[in-house]
Design brief:
Helix content: 10-25%
Number of domains: 1
Largest sheet: 3 strands, antiparallel
Order of helices and strands: EEHEH
Number of strands: 3
Strand order of the largest sheet: 2-1-3
Structural class: alpha+beta
Distance between the termini: 26 Å
Radius of gyration: 14 Å
Shape: elongated
Low-confidence stretches: none
Number of helices: 2
Length: 102
């Protein structure tokens, strides 16, 4: 089950479950669209993968056992453990390689 993390790991912006601005990598690292585009250049600073828009979990259970009521969003806020310099160097080495070729 996708965790739906509550914040951008870079700038700490709130990313509620209905946010169309949330981006995730294959490990569910979560960032806002602005950080992904302007700082990370589509390179996850944790794994080196690319990002996709995070799916929006329906508020309403359209089928039994589904929706936010049955599977609420995560509440644990995450923060990168890397320095800005570490992130910049990591991204610089990978940003020109497409995610499928990393």
């Amino acid at each position: 089950m996708l965790e739906l993390r509550p914040n951008c790991e870079m700038c700490d912006r709130d990313l509620p479950p209905e946010s169309a601005d949330a981006r995730i990598c294959t490990y569910e690292c979560t960032f806002c669209a602005d950080c992904v585009e302007t700082v990370l250049h589509n390179v996850c600073p944790n794994c080196g993968g690319g990002f996709v828009p995070r799916p929006i979990r329906p508020k309403t259970a359209h089928r039994d056992g589904t929706g936010l009521r049955h599977h609420p969003a995560g509440i644990k806020r995450r923060k990168l453990k890397w320095t800005t310099a570490d992130i910049s160097a990591f991204v610089a080495k990978r940003r020109h390689i497409t995610p499928e070729d990393r």
